[in-house]
Amino acid sequence: MPDREDGVCQPEGPEIHSGRQFFLLLKIAAVLTFAGCTHSQPDPDLVIINGPEPESLDPAVLTGEADGRVALELFAGLTRYDPTDARPIPDLAESWDLSADGKVYTFHLRTNAVWSTGEPITARDFVYSWLRVLDPASAAEYAGQLFYLKNGEAYNAGRVKDPSQVGVTALDHHTLRVELSHPTAFFLELCTYVTLRSVPRQAIEKNGDRWLMVHPVPCSGPYELAAWRVNDRIRLRKNPRYWDAANTKTEIVDLLPCTSATTALNLYETHVADIVWDKNLVPVELLDVLLNRHDFHSFSYLGTYFIRFNVTRKPFGDPRVRQALARVIDKRRIVEKITKGGERAASSYTPPGIPGYPSPDGLGFDPDLARKLLAQAGFPGGQGFPSFEYLCDSTSRLHEQIAVELQEMWRRELGVHAQIRKLEWKTYLRAQGDLDYDLSRSSWIGDYNDPNTFLDMFMSNNGNNRTGWSNARYDELVREANAQVDREKRAQLLQQAEILLVREEAPIVPLYYYAGLDYYDANRIKGIFPNALSQNPIRSIYKVSARSGVSIPKP
């Protein structure tokens, strides 16, 4: 999942309209709907600083980490994350069977699973939810998560019109049959992901794109949406009808939007907030001191910070230009002088530590070779090279600091000039999605513990590609790899694809692998377990005692 950041009426399909044009309307209506919720409402039991204001809470269209954290609590899937290590464990499916050829799953849903509004949750709800994501009218950027279904990609591309030909079928109310186009080792992990969660057909068909505005929102997960007041808070209330409600630890949770590290720290220090997610919400100038505190927690996880090229714009369509710009980036300097939070300079795009997958090396630091490549591309000494823009967002001062460092490296080593274009979060996402940029800062957090979660996003038809880069050989390698039963052969094919991505074609430049950093008092807050996916289900988090006193030096 990136640093954030979405019909036709069919027998088993939904009625869908384009989601993006409704986001602003959704938020305005959310304010109106819940404007009176603060007077006479109880205090929250837990307050979390959640990063940027969510763009949407609809699992079919959301792409942001802050958005996903909320939606994962509102909407349940066939499987869910184990809070200790993020493995997939049963959720609405209490069990499943897998055919001998590894291509057909039969999921057995819980007979006591109901929506928060009382209606039963059935296998047909999953058929509806998945087809809604795949429907080409939805323009869902994460539709690729369902391309592993038989005819899933063809249906999304419009080559197959009949939704009954897609490999997801309700055999009865509590039995879901899923047919894959080939064995998929990580399919249960995909079932855990937010895009594959169940959404309420009854509310969407009645209210269309306004379904999240109409109270009460039918929820299938451990929490209900009590209130969404834009630029104030999202309030979650325990869903008493969730099948595992007895193990939802906290009754009322408030998630506050905040992109200022100073504000986040102040809210925490004054006991307004109990937990602050994300390294972006730690003041960089205090990092050395804060990392020594007992309530600041650093951990490794599957995340990469990288640069995208828009290859549809000249001269960035030339791989030599992209390689030249990549080879003058001193990544070690960036992690040692700017990020300073335990990050590691990245060569590959996929982070190290994925079981059974040694990541291949990308482009190293070599200014001399970079200058030769730029000259070969027609720009000796940077002569004639157009001024270009480097896009970043304003959610963290860190992004601008990295941009300034890159700007200087490119000027000093290649004689080319980059202008920094800084945009507000949602405008930045839109610009990136519309290919309205030259170069752009980006990041990706693994959705599951497999190299495919990083590599499939740069296939030609993936909505998260956002580079304009299309390579038939790359697509073929990823597809062939994911059809392999032999794990070693699969890893070799994915390595070949990644070499194309980070070395030979280089539509992206990995800068560093993330080190997670959040802060909370572990003597007071329980149920948080660092893991490779940085998934901490809110349902498992709870408060046990008064906060111990802490102090912070002034910057």
Characterization of the model:
- By secondary structure, the chain is of the alpha+beta class.
- It has a domain at 301-515: Dipeptide-binding Protein, domain 3.
- The protein has 16 helices and 19 strands.
- It has helices at 23-34, 65-74, 123-134, 152-157, 187-192, 201-207, 261-269, 287-290, 319-327, 331-339, 367-376, 397-414, 425-433, 452-455, 472-482, 487-504; strands spanning 46-49, 79-81, 88-90, 93-98, 104-109, 168-172, 175-179, 223-229, 233-238, 252-256, 275-276, 296-309, 344-345, 388-393, 418-423, 439-445, 508-519, 525-526, 542-543.
- It has a six-stranded mixed beta sheet with strand order 13-17-12-16-14-15. A five-stranded mixed beta sheet has the order 8-9-10-1-11, sandwiched between helices. Strands 4-5-7-6 form a four-stranded antiparallel beta sheet, covered by helices on one side.
- Strand 14 (388-393), helix 12 and strand 15 (418-423) form a beta-alpha-beta unit.
- Helix 15 runs antiparallel to helix 16.
- The longest helix is centred in the last third of the chain and has 18 residues, at 397-414.
- It is globular, with a radius of gyration of 23 Å.
- The protein starts with 22 loop residues before the first helix and ends in a 12-residue tail after the last strand.
